[in-house]
Amino acid sequence: LFCDIGFSGHVLFKLVWAPTPGFLCGYMAWAQIFFSLSSIFFIVCITLVCIVAADAEIWLSWCLG
Questions:
Q1: Which residues cross the membrane (predicted)?
Q2: Residue 38: count of CB within 10 angstroms of its CB
Q3: d(CA 13, CA 5)
């Protein structure tokens, strides 16, 4: 969701504002790297939460019999 909102803002920024070509190129490179890394970060976080939840469920079932 964060990446979708950010990418939509990025596209609107690109369409509405007409900066110099050098700035636009730098901004596009930064946005591509940032949104890719943030996507990876959130995928890793969600995966870790799922792993921890699964481990907690296994641990609780073992403790409670």
A1: 29-54
A2: 14
A3: 12
- Which H, E and C letters describe 1-65, residue by residue? CHHHHHHHHHHHHHHHCCCCHHHHHHHHHHHHHHHHHHHHHHHHHHHHHHHHHHHHHHHHHHHHC
Number of domains in the chain: 1
pTM score above 0.70:
no
**What is the rounded (10 degree) CA torsion for 24, 36, 6, 10?**
20
Torsion of CA 59, 41, 43, 50, to 10 degrees: 10
